[in-house]
Amino acid sequence: MNKVAVIGSGNVGATTVQRLAELNIADIVMVDIVEGLPQGKALDILQAAPLMGYDVDVKGTNDYADIAGSDVVVITAGIARKPGMSRDDLLATNIKITQQICASIEQYAPDAIIMTVTNPLDIITYAALRCTQFDRNKVFGMSGLLDSSRFASFIAKELNCSVKDVCAMVLGGHGDSMVPLPEYSTVSGVPLSKLMDEATIERIVNRTINAGAEIVAYMKSGSAFYAPSAAIATMVESILNDTKRIVPASAFLNGEYGQHDICLGVPVKLGKNGVEEIIELELTKQEMEALQRSADAVREGISKIRS
Ligand SMILES: NC(=O)C1=CN([C@@H]2O[C@H](COP(=O)(O)OP(=O)(O)OC[C@H]3O[C@@H](n4cnc5c(N)ncnc54)[C@H](O)[C@@H]3O)[C@@H](O)[C@H]2O)C=CC1
Ligand SMILES: O=C([O-])CC(=O)C(=O)O
């Protein structure tokens, strides 16, 4: 049986465990620093198994030794933002949490693939890669698939069509400078530009960029977790089943898209070896400039963790 460890048993972590259990693809260990929290949530999820028809094991623990043998470790531990905060405001707290967790992963699950979720996503992913010194295919972040799913849901709503026919793409950092790509977003193969006027596309693009903040503003404390956990589960499934789905994720770039020494959202092929390929899309001059601005914003954050 495959094994997945989910670090952090808060909103994103626990919902991820629920979704993974319902996919029935791996035994799951959920970890948190709060005593009793992962144990209680794990029991609750297990007790739904007879009703939902899954038969994987779900264990809650405060002991990192229990992550030993994990194929994938998902890091969701850390603070979430409140209204008025940017994701970058979480860096000082979440970087320390991430560094501690990475040391435990190195110790107990040195062969695991790491998927970061904690914000600010691209900087945390870079830190996880540097801390563990794992190969770059084995450390990447969940971001673009969530942003693309949001973009797709807004397109479907606007066109009053099935979301099943929508394919959307968002590149760049998981922040205000993310780069939704209308040119690579289609409905049953028809480019968005043939289905909507420019003003409508711009409105949907801006809503996508602000989608996380829109939810934070509604919720007052805490941020999104249903769509984020759906994106995480989709990516974990592609790895464990070696499906080789092509999805945007924050990956370490070594010359791709003209970028070096940075983690940034780009389309990747996800299989049993993690990021098996980085796909380089042909971008217009404007799109390349937007990606460069996004990379500059991520680099500013990375420079803070270096100093
Ligand atoms: N990449 C993305 O697209 C998304 C990222 N996020 C980020 O995910 C993170 C978690 O969000 P939520 O689950 O909503 O927060 P939450 O507050 O509900 O849960 C966080 C959990 O982490 C635990 N934790 C803190 N330090 C820990 C440590 N050292 N070891 C183990 N557990 C520890 C806390 O006890 C808490 O249970 C936030 O940083 C948030 O910004 C959230 C949604 C989407
Ligand atoms: O908005 C946040 O802080 C959480 C997040 O990254 C998202 O929902 O995209």
TrEMBL record:
<feature type="binding site">
    <location>
        <position position="119"/>
    </location>
    <ligand>
        <name>substrate</name>
    </ligand>
</feature>
<feature type="domain" description="Lactate/malate dehydrogenase N-terminal">
    <location>
        <begin position="3"/>
        <end position="141"/>
    </location>
</feature>
<comment type="similarity">
    <text>Belongs to the LDH/MDH superfamily.</text>
</comment>
<feature type="binding site">
    <location>
        <position position="81"/>
    </location>
    <ligand>
        <name>substrate</name>
    </ligand>
</feature>
<keyword id="KW-0520">NAD</keyword>
<feature type="active site" description="Proton acceptor">
    <location>
        <position position="174"/>
    </location>
</feature>
<dbReference type="Pfam" id="PF00056">
    <property type="entry name" value="Ldh_1_N"/>
</dbReference>
<dbReference type="InterPro" id="IPR001557">
    <property type="entry name" value="L-lactate/malate_DH"/>
</dbReference>
<dbReference type="GO" id="GO:0006099">
    <property type="term" value="P:tricarboxylic acid cycle"/>
</dbReference>
<dbReference type="InterPro" id="IPR022383">
    <property type="entry name" value="Lactate/malate_DH_C"/>
</dbReference>
<feature type="binding site">
    <location>
        <begin position="117"/>
        <end position="119"/>
    </location>
    <ligand>
        <name>NAD(+)</name>
    </ligand>
</feature>
<feature type="binding site">
    <location>
        <position position="150"/>
    </location>
    <ligand>
        <name>substrate</name>
    </ligand>
</feature>
<dbReference type="GO" id="GO:0030060">
    <property type="term" value="F:L-malate dehydrogenase (NAD+) activity"/>
</dbReference>
<feature type="binding site">
    <location>
        <position position="32"/>
    </location>
    <ligand>
        <name>NAD(+)</name>
    </ligand>
</feature>
<feature type="binding site">
    <location>
        <begin position="8"/>
        <end position="13"/>
    </location>
    <ligand>
        <name>NAD(+)</name>
    </ligand>
</feature>
<dbReference type="GO" id="GO:0004459">
    <property type="term" value="F:L-lactate dehydrogenase (NAD+) activity"/>
</dbReference>
<dbReference type="InterPro" id="IPR011275">
    <property type="entry name" value="Malate_DH_type3"/>
</dbReference>
<keyword id="KW-0816">Tricarboxylic acid cycle</keyword>
<keyword id="KW-0560">Oxidoreductase</keyword>
<protein>
    <recommendedName>
        <fullName>Malate dehydrogenase</fullName>
        <ecNumber>1.1.1.37</ecNumber>
    </recommendedName>
</protein>
<feature type="binding site">
    <location>
        <position position="94"/>
    </location>
    <ligand>
        <name>NAD(+)</name>
    </ligand>
</feature>
<dbReference type="InterPro" id="IPR015955">
    <property type="entry name" value="Lactate_DH/Glyco_Ohase_4_C"/>
</dbReference>
<dbReference type="Pfam" id="PF02866">
    <property type="entry name" value="Ldh_1_C"/>
</dbReference>
<comment type="function">
    <text>Catalyzes the reversible oxidation of malate to oxaloacetate.</text>
</comment>
<feature type="domain" description="Lactate/malate dehydrogenase C-terminal">
    <location>
        <begin position="146"/>
        <end position="305"/>
    </location>
</feature>
<dbReference type="InterPro" id="IPR001236">
    <property type="entry name" value="Lactate/malate_DH_N"/>
</dbReference>
<dbReference type="GO" id="GO:0006089">
    <property type="term" value="P:lactate metabolic process"/>
</dbReference>
<feature type="binding site">
    <location>
        <position position="87"/>
    </location>
    <ligand>
        <name>substrate</name>
    </ligand>
</feature>
<dbReference type="InterPro" id="IPR036291">
    <property type="entry name" value="NAD(P)-bd_dom_sf"/>
</dbReference>
